[in-house]
Design goal:
With about 170 residues, the chain is α/β, with parallel strands linked by helices. About 20% of the residues lie in helices and about 25% in strands. It has one domain: 3 Solenoid (UDP N-Acetylglucosamine Acyltransferase, domain 1), CATH 2.160.10.10. It is built from 3 helices and 17 strands. The strands form 4 sheets. A 6-stranded mixed beta sheet has the order 3-6-11-14-16-17. A 4-stranded parallel beta sheet has the order 2-5-10-13, with helices on one face. The protein has a 4-stranded parallel beta sheet with strand order 4-7-12-15. α1 (about 25-40) packs antiparallel against α2 (about 45-55). Pfam families: Hexapep_2.
């Protein structure tokens, strides 16, 4: 189960009531920063912008590819470890707005994680150290450290132990 906090609402759907839950100016500023950062070709500068203006926690040597979209409303709930790669056009969500409620959840991506292109990471997810996520996956539950996962919905392809065995047999 994803680790999200649920907030019930009354009246129209929760997205219609968006600015009761987050400041318009915060969303506006975050949108501008994210649009700029998507096109910055320098990883160090990109990470500095995310850390400074969006309050994201990003480890050293992490590479966030072109067109990655972190959560526009709650980017401060995203933590990415050191020396990880977030692939092209990936979306990392820390919120979801539903009809009768909205949910918020921290996203924690470990050290030396590889996330393939066009992946969607839902709120309240933890991806363990040295995990590999295949391109196009929808991450709707936690990923164990060292595992290889993929698909929509996400499925475990190899455990850490199976990956180690597979990698050692190739040498």
């Amino acid at each position: 189960m994803r680790k999200t906090e649920r907030y019930k609402i009354e009246g129209p759907n929760s997205l219609w009531q968006l600015y009761k839950t987050v400041s318009f100016w915060k969303v506006f500023k975050n949108t501008v920063i994210i649009l700029i950062v998507k096109f910055v070709p320098f990883m160090g500068l990109k990470n500095w912008l995310y850390r400074t203006f969006l309050k994201m926690k990003i480890g050293d040597h992490t590479a966030i590819a072109f067109m990655v979209t972190p959560d526009i409303m709650f980017p401060e709930k995203i933590k990415i470890g050191r020396n990880s790669i977030i692939g092209y056009n990936t979306t990392i969500l820390a919120h979801e707005y539903l009809i009768d409620e909205y949910r918020l959840g921290e996203v924690s991506i470990g050290d030396e994680v590889m996330i393939g292109a066009n992946t969607t990471i839902l709120p309240g997810i933890t991806i363990g150290d040295r995990a590999i996520v295949s391109a196009g996956a929808v991450i709707h539950k936690d990923v164990p450290a060292g595992a290889f996962v993929g698909g929509n919905p996400m499925k475990l392809i190899y455990t850490k132990e199976e990956m180690e065995k597979r990698n050692s047999s190739r040498r």
